[in-house]
Design goal:
The structure is a homodimer of 337-residue chains.
Chain A lengths: L5 H8 L3 H8 L7 H13 L6 H8 L4 E6 L5 H16 L3 E6 L4 H10 L7 E4 L9 H8 L4 E4 L10 E4 L1 H14 L5 E5 L5 H16 L6 E4 L4 H13 L6 E4 L2 H14 L8 E5 L13 E4 L2 H18 L9 E4 L2 E3 L8
Chain lengths: 337, 337
């Protein structure tokens, strides 16, 4: 059997399409027995109202758009789990878009979602994103936006993050306390808010402890290049004895570089990073991490967005900043040996 | 500025909405200079046609629905990356739904997507799914479906999988060749196609080598329970000296159980599993895996579905089975020591 629509129901019942539509809409001007007949057949044939037509009527897609740089990553996949949990409980579906760190893709997505596909947007911006005009357009089209994790200060809108700066200070102190004299910060793109805050935490912590000069190693999106950068740094004179990696990808690159050079973690080099990797305790050696509240960030961001959509306020919500704390979990990679 | 619609353009240009609509649709009955004026303003104001209205006209949402049990898992997140790659290249958006292994959620999703939100469905079924009437309904509503990884033999439709049976035979031979005398198969739900094929491969390999009796340990969706099951088994008499885990979650549980009991991998117990875990080489000890072609499975499944959607065939595509091979990657967890 093909698609069951109003026309099918009307033909089977020998009623007009308008009568069927009004019966399904529970309108007052249709007799009880007619309503009953229509609803019975609709159930039997598994009639589903057309989403496009319903969308036109209610001007709501009941769908949230989520834009992330990647999902093959424990942090973002946990955030998305959290978003799903709250969205489904509120009757919303979730449309996930990946930018793969490309501003070009992010702009295309922003253009695409303005035409009624979603009721609002949750976004963690790409590492290429500095100008956010494409997101201003989304807002101007009447769609609320909530930033999470990687935010832009160019727009005063709600954002949900962790305490990146304070956690980075704590991570750096942890390496200093473990005896490191020459700590390198393995950096993501300088455009990114999270990188800026974590790097500032690292620099301030070194300055506060009157530690020796700082070193920033720039990482990128290509794993092999990250490994090679770290191999070069660890092969040079004044080899670092501590690595603070901004994200888990860079800690994995550091582990691989040490394996390549025969350096032992934590004896020769101590490593810490921001990560939600589930197997961090099972790595060789187990990895000391700053564990972000990924699931909670997702839930909070989704709840904030649903609130904005349903309040239907035209007024500006302003830059409400919600910060959920991370934990430092000490493991073998920063042990004193 | 609020939403720019046909009405806005018509008012600004002092034209009727019908003229504007026909100009945007490049109809023949509109003068060239009028068309030019309309298109110029539409560009300037970033006019976006309404998706719901466009959907009604073309009866296409240009969206693919993807249903997976979870995404905080390297296999599914890589599959979704592959799906995105092909979908975006073909002009489709991707709507990701999570079942969290619940048949109830899967049924709700299947009902929900029948009303025009998606043009077709890619699904890896939940571990609770035996009856697939909800998917038959989706097909009866005219939406093509392609199974990937976890398939149902109840429906004769295209499916994309890896060579689960042959890879499981190879994995079991690998443990036998490493000297294991008492291998346990750590099992997922018996409902799942992948589990059935992998378990059969294990049993056939043991039988072929005239090995001692087989042992099946039933795992589930709760990590702590999986760890406890394995601890009990490894604490008993006739302790297994080899574990073949159906999925990486169960291998992680095995590593944790061994750590809890002070058993050394690979000396006391050897471990192998199906996994796309990126950090498998960095685990303590590095984990021998059957690596599935996750990205390729995603690409192939998406390409098959887009083909079905665009061919617009009413005829049954039948049960085309595409099988992409896995590789066994030998590491320390199965070494002879």
């Amino acid at each position: 059997m093909g698609k069951v629509d109003l026309r099918t129901l009307a033909a089977r019942l020998n009623l007009s399409m308008s009568t069927v539509s009004r019966a399904l809409g529970d309108k007052q001007d249709i007799g009880a027995s007619t309503k009953k007949r229509v609803l019975k057949l609709a159930r039997e044939l598994n009639y589903q109202p057309n989403a496009h037509a319903a969308g036109l009527r209610h001007r709501k897609s009941k769908t949230i758009g989520v834009v992330v740089p990647e999902i093959a990553n424990n942090f973002f996949s946990l955030v998305i789990d959290g978003i799903h949990e709250v969205a489904h409980a509120s009757g919303y579906h979730v449309l996930v878009y990946l930018t793969h760190e490309s501003l070009h893709k992010e702009i295309n997505i922003a253009r695409h979602i303005q035409n009624g596909r979603v009721d609002g947007l949750l976004i963690s911006i790409s590492s290429e994103t500095v100008n956010v005009d494409h997101l201003r357009e989304v807002r101007n089209a009447g769609l609320p936006i909530v930033f999470f994790d990687r935010v832009s200060n160019e727009m005063k809108i709600p954002c949900v993050t962790t305490n990146d700066y304070e956690s980075a200070v704590e991570a750096t102190h942890h390496l200093l306390d473990a005896g490191c004299k020459n700590i390198v910060y393995f950096s993501l793109s300088h455009n990114l808010s999270i990188n800026g805050k974590r790097m500032k935490g690292y620099l301030d912590a070194l300055r506060r402890r009157k530690s020796s000069a700082s070193t920033i190693l720039q990482g990128g999106n290509v794993h092999e290049e990250n490994v090679n950068h770290m191999i070069r740094l660890l092969s040079g004179k004044e080899r670092p004895d501590g690595v603070f990696a901004c994200v888990e990808e860079l800690a994995i690159a550091t582990y691989e570089a040490c394996a390549h050079l025969g350096l032992q973690i934590p004896r020769d080099v101590k490593v810490i990073c921001f990560s939600n990797m589930r197997v961090a305790p099972l790595l060789n050696p187990s990895l000391t991490t700053v564990r972000q509240p990924a699931l909670e960030i997702g839930k909070e961001a989704a709840a904030t967005l649903v609130g904005l959509i349903e309040s239907n306020k035209k007024s500006d919500p302003g830059q409400v900043k919600k910060v959920i704390k991370s934990d430092l979990i000490e493991r073998r990679s920063t042990a004193i040996v």
